[in-house]
Specification:
Length: about 375
């Protein structure tokens, strides 16, 4: 069966909606295997995966998965009702996807049409591309901030632990050696139900120390349970409670460092987080990944930036030439009056979340 036939076989049996883009007809896809194959083939990230859409469904979003009949483009749109405004917000994290970059504006126009037909009043997209200036010709406006990190570092995953260690920059190799010398051990969790609670305690300690917001604990429990994920923990030899940890996810040939935490240990520097990252790279290798995304750095790093310490740590694992910068977020009003109300509602939501300590809000450069 050809790729084209596979897409048709797994699409909804109802007739496709009228096309909104350049000669493309889009169908909604319900089958997980077909959708993930299409997304992976277009270079999409975990945020466009079937599992991510279902995970966000648990948070009140409704996924809409659109695939061009010829497989050349796709987008998972997340729809959420806007209380007090009417209609919905539509959001495409790391989407839409297009096999040819020059087709992205037409694909975005098609996505906007389908979102509007589903009652969306405002569409926000974050394509994982370097530049997207032509989106403005389709009525999109570049946002001053983004939901997902716009700048990140990528560590190539090597064929063995030995090759990985040899390829790491000197600072990372030193940290790994020091952790081993002081009796630190790191490994994937074998009892995630118990270990996750340890990790979440550690994450809360880290958030309090570094002053960033966290989501409710059940968010992380569901993420580990519903996405292809791994929990990596470092402990002092013979101790039960971890002193550092990381939660990673995998999709296709990529792995993602989503959350990290570490204890503030007085009087010693065990370098546990270095060993956690080295073991995370091993977990990525076992999952078939060839890229490990460190999931965000400041686009304009400087010593007074609140993430300067995080940036310095991540830089020790990714040497020169491994930085990726994306175009950022673009939004388009799909209803003149209600799109303004939607923007005001979203701004109020993030302000409330920050006050509750649940989110740091959109990310500015």
């Amino acid at each position: 069966m050809s790729t084209h036939d596979t897409h048709r076989a797994y699409a909804l049996t109802t007739a496709p909606r009228p096309e909104y883009g350049r000669g493309a007809v889009y169908v909604e896809v319900e089958d997980k295997t077909a959708w993930n194959a299409a997304v992976a083939g277009l270079g999409g990230s975990v945020l466009q995966s079937y599992e991510w859409g279902e995970f966000r469904r648990g948070g009140g979003w409704t996924p809409l998965r659109l695939l061009a009949e010829d497989g050349s483009s796709a987008s998972q749109i997340l729809l959420r009702k806007l209380p007090g405004v009417g209609g919905s917000l539509a959001y495409a994290p790391h989407g839409p996807l297009a096999s040819a970059p020059e087709d992205l504006p037409a694909v975005a126009r098609a996505v906007a049409g389908h979102a509007k037909s589903r009652g969306a009043r405002l569409l926000e997209i974050e394509p994982r591309v370097v530049n997207a200036p032509d989106l403005e010709t389709e009525g999109f406006t570049r946002s001053a901030s983004s939901v997902q990190p716009r700048c990140t570092l990528i560590v190539p995953v090597r064929e063995s632990a030995e090759a990985q260690y040899a390829a790491l920059p000197k600072g990372a190799r030193y940290g790994i050696r020091r952790a081993l010398q002081v009796g630190i051990e790191a490994e994937p969790s074998t009892d995630e139900e118990i270990d996750l609670e340890f990790f979440l305690d550690l994450l809360q300690e880290t958030a309090d120390r570094q002053r960033f917001g966290l989501r409710p604990r059940d968010y992380y429990r569901r993420l580990l349970r519903e996405l292809p994920s791994a929990l990596i923990l470092a402990r002092k030899e013979g101790e039960e409670r971890p002193i550092a940890g990381a939660m990673i996810s995998t999709f296709g040939d990529e792995a993602y460092y989503l959350y990290g935490a570490s204890a503030a240990l007085q009087g010693e520097t065990p370098y546990a987080s270095y060993l956690v990252q080295f073991e995370a790279l091993s977990a990525a290798r076992r999952a078939g990944a060839i890229r490990y995304d460190l999931w965000g750095i400041p686009c304009k790093p400087h010593p007074k930036h609140p993430l300067w310490g995080v940036y310095q740590f991540k830089r020790k694992f990714a040497g020169p030439g491994h930085e990726e910068r994306y175009a950022g977020a673009y939004n388009k009003g799909l209803n003149l009056l209600q799109s303004h109300l939607a923007r005001a509602s979203i701004k109020s939501y993030y302000t409330l979340q920050r006050l509750r300590g649940r989110s740091s809000g959109p990310i500015a450069d």
